[in-house]
Amino acid sequence: MGGSAARGRSTPGSDLDITVLLPDGGVRRRELLRHDGRLAEVFLNSRSDLRTAFAESRTTRRATALFLFADSVVLLDPDGHVETLRQEAKALLAAGPDPLTGAERDARRALLTDLVDDLTDTGPHSDPHEQLAVADRVLREAADLLTAHRRMWNGAGKWLPRRLRAADPDLGRHLLDGHLVLARQADPTALTASAVRVLDLTGGPLREGYVEC
């Protein structure tokens, strides 16, 4: 069992994250169940499935499967296979994700630069829905680039701010605070400045001269 329940942080609305280890050749799948009024998300995988997912986590830099296994509470493990996989997951988490290639870094810089330019053009009199949509994308792309630069894991949803603050407490907080100011006051200044800091860390803004192959 993993997720918030395993960490002692579950709320009445939290679901249960359950991983079931299948025999080799079992059909990999995800099932949603309800038990005693609580939703349970059940992930069924063989050992080879999980090792494939673990390897993919290093390249995607989003280690959902790794964290689910490494932070889990073992309920049943008659053959010791679950504990072996837990130790593998912990080692991979400690090693961190793969570094960005030069091409990956440049592609992310070019995308974030374009988004920052769009955000800079907005203000209190802009369409608020458009401004917030651009700001959300700026935050996501800046967070992904910053976590990758630090060789730390990224996240989505509620895990985006958690992973971002873990990767860079200072700049991560400024990005999040800047996004909050924009949402409340329609002022893009702080978020734009923080996103530019991320670009400066990773080689600077990238506009003319960039070629995507």
Report the principal-axis shape.
globular
**Spatial order of the strands forming the largest sheet:** 1-3-2
The count of DSSP E runs of length 2 or more, i.e. the number of strands, is 3
- Intertermini distance: 43 Å
The secondary-structure element order is: HEEEHHHHHHHH
Content of β-strand = 5-15%
Oligomeric state of the chains present here: single chain
Outline the biggest β-sheet: 3 strands, mixed
User: Class by helix and strand content?
Assistant: mainly alpha
**How much is the radius of gyration in Å?**
20 Å
Mean pLDDT: 90
Summarize the amount of helix as a percent range: 55-70%
**Overall domain count:** 2
Catalogue the unreliable spans: none
Count of discrete alpha- or pi-helical segments spanning 4 or more residues? 9
Question: Any chance you could write out the topology, listing elements then pairs?
Answer:
Blueprint lengths: L2 H5 L8 E7 L6 E7 L2 E9 H14 L3 H7 L10 H15 L6 H19 L7 H22 L9 H9 L1 H17 L3 H13 L12
Parallel strand pairs: 1-3
Antiparallel strand pairs: 2-3
Helix pairs in contact: 2-4, 3-4, 5-6, 5-9, 6-7, 6-8, 6-9, 7-8, 8-9
